[in-house]
Every structure is written in C-alpha cells, then in structure tokens.
Amino acid sequence: MIHIQRISGGYGKEPIVKDISFHVNAGEIFSIVGPNGSGKSTLLKFIYGALEPMTGEVNIDQRSLSSYSQKELARKIAVLPQHTETAFSFTVREVVELGRYPHQKGWFSTNTKNDEDMVQHAMKDTGVEAFAHLPMDMLSGGEKQRVLLARALAQEADILLLDEPTNHLDISFQISLLDTLKKWTLDKKLTVVAVLHDLNMAAMYSDRVLLLKDGTEQAIDKPAYVMEKEKLEDVYHTQLYRREHPSVPSPLISLVPSENDHSFTSDAIDQLSIHENKDHTLISSPDYWKTLSSAVIGAGFGWHRLFINRHVDKSYYAEHPEEEFSHYLQTQQLDVADTAGMMTAARLEDGAAARLTDAEGDVFVYATAGVANAVDASRAYKKSSSPVSVGTINIWIFIHGTLTEAAYAQLMMTATEAKVKALFDKNIKDPDTETTATGTSTDSVLIAASQQGSKYDYGGTISVLGKKTAKAVYDAVCQTLDNYICRK
Amino acid sequence: MFLKKSKKFLIFTAGFLFLLGTIIVGVSLGSVSIPMGASAQILWNAIWGIPTHIDETYQTIVLQIRLPRAMLAALVGAALAMAGAAFQGLLRNPLADPYTLGVSSGAALGAVLVLFLGWTLPVIGDFTLPVVSIITGFLTLFVLLGFVRFIERKLTTETIILAGIIISSFLGSVISLLIALTGEELRQIISWLMGSVAMRGWDYVWLMLPFFIVGALLLMASRKELNALVFGEDTAKTLGVNTERKRVMILAGASLLTGSAVAVSGTIGFVGLVVPHLMRLLFGPDHQSLVPLSAIFGAGFLVITDVTARTLIAPTELPIGVITAIVGAPVFGLLLFHERRRRIKVT
C-alpha cells in the first residue's frame, strides 16, 4: 500500500528525517513513536505530500506520490490533523461535507445524492449525527476530533494518517477513537498510519511500530519486539519498565520517576518492627517492600509496608473475606492499601522466626503453623474440595535486596520445597490417607524484597539467595511445628 | 455544503428584492423627487424597450443620471463585498477587507496616476484606468503578504491588519502629495479619497463591468476551496485542494474586483468588512452562499448608502465613504473585540 524508500529531509538544510525506509500493508495499523523532535510528524508530512523530501521516494499503490493530482491523492489518503481552529465557525455538517470535495468535479459542482449519503454515513459512524447542525466552536475537544474523523471518513480514502490524534483528549476519548480505527481496519480494510506519543496506546493498537530517534530508525517491528526496555530507555533517556498488559497480549510500559524517594536508610530488615497481641502479629516497616503473595489482602504483586498475620477461629466464615478483613484493618487503624494480610487458625504464640545474615545477603522468615488439616498433595484428588480463606501454615519471607520477577517466582518454589521438607522431617501425616503431608489445604506465602541494595537475578535452591531462604524457611517452619506439637 | 434548498431559495429571492428596492429608491430620491411607481415603470419599460408616457425630464433623470449612478454603486458594492469575503476566507481573518489590507489604497494610487497625471497606455486606451488600478492593487497585496511573511510565518490576524494600515497610510500620503503637486484643490482630493459614485455616467459602468464579471467568476469558482482554506493551507491540501493554483485565482479575482471598483469610485472603506460579516451572522460562514449573498446585499447596501450620502445634508453631497466609515469603523472595532475574546477563550 505505502512504500517509503530511503527518505531524508526536513524544513531547512539539515534533514530532520534521515534515511528511513518502510512499507505499510493494507488494513494495517502502523504507528510511529519517538520523543519530541525525533521527526515523527515530519515523516508523516512526507507521506501526504505536505513536505518534499530531499532524497528518497514515497510510493502509494506502486505509484510515485508526485504523480498524483491533489484531488486524486485526497481520494487515496485522508489526514486527521492534531487540532483545528478556524476564524469562522462552520456547522458540523458543513465540516464533514468538505470531505466530499475530492470526489466532486468542475468549478461549479454541487453535492450529489451520493455525497449526501456518504456525509450522513460518516456522521453516523463517528456518532456526531446528533449535533450535525451545531457550530464547531460549541463542541468539546473530543467531539471536534470526532467531527474531523467524520470528515476524513467522508473522503472515502484507503489510507488514514493521524498526527498525535489523542493529544488534548481525555482517556475515554483516546480509547474510543483508537477502538473506532481498529474496527475500521477490520471492517473497511482501512490502512492507518499514526504518530503517537503514548507508547502504551501504540503497543495496544498497532500491528507494527516504527521507533524513531533523531530522525533515524531504531526499530521497526511488532510492538512486542520494538518496546524493549533497553531500546526505549536509550531512545527516551529515561528509566522505564516493561511489563505485560494484564488483560491483552501487548507490552505495557511504566515510567519511573527520577526522584524516587523509595529508599531505606540502612538494611531494611533491621528496620522491621514486630508487635504481637492476641488477635494478630503485625510486622511493620517505615518504607515499602515489593511483595508477591497469596495473602488475602494484597495478593499478587504489590507494594506494602504493613504485614499482618491475623488469628481467627477455626469456624471463621465470611462471604467476602477480603471485605471483612479490610473492615478489621480499619478498626485497627491500619491503611488497607499499605497492607498485606493473611489469616490463620493456628495459634500465634506457636509462631517462629529465623534470620540468616552474612555478606552475601540478609533473609528473615516468620512462620506460623497448625497441621490439623494437613494434606498430601499427591493424594489430594481423593478429597472433596471446599473454598477456604483461613491459612494454616503462613510463611513470610523478607529479603534485603533487588529481585527480578524470575527470582520471585523461583523463591516461591524454593520456599515451598523447604516447607515440604520440614513437614517430611517432622513426620506430619495427612490424617485421611495416613501418608506424609506436603502442606495443609490453606497455606500461604509472601515474599517481600526491599528492592534496594544487592541485585539477585535468581532464587533457585542453590542460588546465593535461594540457599539462605530455603534454610531460613526450613528452620522457621520446623520451629513452629515443634512449638505446635509440644503444646498438643 | 448548503443551507436547505428551500431556505436558500428564499434568502436569495429576498436579496434580489432588496437590491431591486434599493435601486428604485435610488432613482426616485434626490433634488427632484420622482414617485416610486413612476420610476419603477420607467425602469420596467426601459428593460423591455417599451415606450413610456411619463414626463421626459423624469425619464432623463432616471435613466441617464440616477440609474447609472445606482448601477455603479451596486457594482462597486458587490465587488468590494465579494472581495472582502474572499480575503477573509483566504487569510482566515475576519478583519480583512480591501480597505484594511491597503489594497484599495494601492489601487487608488494607480487610479490617481492615471487620472491626475493623465496617463494613457497604448492599445487598451480607456481601460488604462481600471487596468492600472488592478495592477497596483495586486502589487500592493503582494508587498503586504511578503512583508507579513517576513515578520512572521504564521500570518496572525493583527499583524496582517497592522501591516495593511501601515501600507494604507503610506500610500494615502503619497496620493495626497501627488494630487497636491498637480495643483488640484484639496477638497476634491478628500472627496476622491473618501470615494464617490457621483457624476460618472454609463461610461464608468461599462468600464468596470468586464473586470467585475471576470473577478466575480473567479471567486464564484473558488467557493468550496475557500471553505477548505478556512481550515488552513495544509488541511485544504489534504482535502484535495490545489492550494497554489486556487490561491492565485482567489487573489487575482479579489484584486480585479477591488482594483476596478477603486478605479471608478475611489476608496470606499469597510464595505467588504461589514457586508460579509452581516451575511455570516445571518446565514452562516459557508462560502458557497456567502460569496453570492455578499455580492447581492453589498450591491444593495452601497446603493442605499449612496442615496443617504446625497440626501442627508442636501443639497451638499457627502462622499459615500464617509457613510460607510461611520457604519464600518465601529463594526471593525466590534469584530476586533470578538476576535480577541475568542482567542483568549481558546488559549
């Protein structure tokens, strides 16, 4: 559809766009991203002929751009400008009707029936029909943008070019605009080339992305390949993180403030303080820890500084345990957003802690255990399942250091293996099967790392961090099991 | 891109009736008052070549003195209003008109050179006057746009008008100086500079008509493009407008209209500002209707203004430009006020 070959040029003598080549296929959404001044808009101007390149060629449907007359080109390419201000306020219908201009012939042409139909259709598709008779300056930014989109649609062009279309629009309009475009690429085989400054929008909606820096191509590929942490950090000169989008298969870019006030003054574990009462054990910290857990409150990845292990009766039941727990935290005047919380029917006084510290790392583990409902995982298929929220063996692991996500996942395994071994060595049996238990039906784990100091890439059983964690977990679980058994 | 067809028909009919009415009033009022019915009949019969049984003097007054004057006023009014509408659309500037841009002054300089220095170019003979006016008007426009682009790329509303006023006052002084050097009476100079359609006769109507027709056709053929150009040159291009060619067409059309109007009537200010603005208020900014409606109502407006100019303090006759300025300058101020307010609201 669009072929750009080795294009260079700009406004003055110095080229802004340098030696760019790419092609856009029919029905594709192609985004151009890059920092301000990287030549995104300039490149777009070459495609619709607003600017002549110094060298290189633009071909639309195998024909050189310069061989098109202005009207022919307007039937091929429509442009959605960033914003429009006019000295005179046309009505919405009048603006949309301008889109029919390239289809009209002669100096004194009038609108045909077909023109009228297309205008009506375009207004309907963009949802501006309701204010067709209103003057433009009475509309909001998002509505104006939709009118201009209707005008572009009335042009019946195969290609739509957009220059930062989401500028000045609030989030819901940005999404609805891009949703509409996506739909049109599927329904009408529209081809879209968009200059976008929001990397996440580009990642979510584009088939392919061109990343520009100082007018040169840095990458051109599917968003998943272009949006790599190192590449983007180099182009944007800022620290950022890439995650995967929680609900759609596309990368998600998060920025990091350069003035990050998240910092422990010394070893984070030394700053933990523990308060116990008959209802709960509270471990609190002056600053936030990055946690991965199966806790009732704050499950999954999160940032927390209050860690509460709450004792509840065996008969505890709540329809919405999370809500009930939140309510409990409020009565204790604890900030729910800052808290990771687990529940246990085990006695808090049986709890045990272990800390392993040396030059290679610092790990602290706190655990509580009761084994009344111990389970052998390999035989568990025989049991009837019931949803329960009250934990029995709860393990809290605190690590001073910076962990990768892989390290978190590996530590989960390491901790579990250490726990299983502790149960094995203490000869805990599944009461139903009379075989050695691997845990209880309601165990919970939390791994918290200060994300300060030494960096740990791995957390497997024989990694530097894994060894310490495994030992601390094993020691703490054995100790709490001993306490539990002794008391019985 | 139009008003509802029936509504549009109604508006144009009203416009033509208004114009016709002003012409009948124009030929009836004056030092010798003629009943409107009589002058209407004289006009009707003259059009169809039917002999009229009304006082010969009346017939002479109507057909030889007042009708050419009214027709000239109508042509000049239509020309200036159309040119104003075109300038405003092309420059995206509600304050632009032949007078505020200095184009009228440029054309006037050309007219003065021909009239007071007695120039006649070979071949075109009598048409020297409008041709020179049109050329000097066109040149002034180029100097103006070049000057403004030199100051800033964006062609801001105020900068254009400021540059227009600078050019206008400079050229006005040059004209005064030229006329003074030829030894003419000062009163006549002022009268000419303020514009007048008095004592011109049919000759001037024929002198202007061909240029008027060509200019009007050029603008009528550019109405849709004017609509697109209101959104800026880049956008107009993406909508398929050949902006380079259309810009020349529009500037040429507006210069033809302004130059030929100034050549026969001097500098009549603000018509091109007031009339299109009023049309926009009443019927919307769509140039497809705006350009022809400006022509019709501009014509009627100037005929009525001329009647006012010669009857207000009769027997003394005021320059027609005095009346248009009295109406136009406050409107200009009001437009400036709205323009600033609009801009403040946007930013």
Automatic annotation (TrEMBL), chain A:
From the record, give the transmembrane residue ranges.
none
Could you list this entry's UniProt keywords, alphabetically sorted.
Answer: ATP-binding, Nucleotide-binding, Translocase, Transport
Question: Could you tell me which InterPro entries the record lists for this protein?
Answer: AAA+_ATPase, ABC_transporter-like_ATP-bd, ABC_transporter-like_CS, AdoCbi_amidolase, P-loop_NTPase
Which residues are in the ABC transporter domain?
2-239
An MF annotation (GO) of this entry:
ATP binding
- PANTHER family noted in UniProt: HEMIN IMPORT ATP-BINDING PROTEIN HMUV (PTHR42794)
Name it.
Iron complex transport system ATP-binding protein
What species is this protein from?
Alteribacillus iranensis
Taxon lineage: Bacteria, Bacillati, Bacillota, Bacilli, Bacillales
TrEMBL record, chain B:
Q: What is its main location?
A: membrane
Alphabetically ordered keywords of this record: Cell membrane, Membrane, Transmembrane, Transmembrane helix, Transport
Q: Which InterPro entries match?
A: ABC_BtuC-like, ABC_transptr_permease_BtuC
Q: Name one GO biological process term.
A: siderophore-iron import into cell
Q: Which GO terms describe its cellular component?
A: plasma membrane
Report how it sits in the membrane: Multi-pass membrane protein
Family of the protein in this entry: Belongs to the binding-protein-dependent transport system permease family. FecCD subfamily.
Name of the molecule in the record: Iron complex transport system permease protein
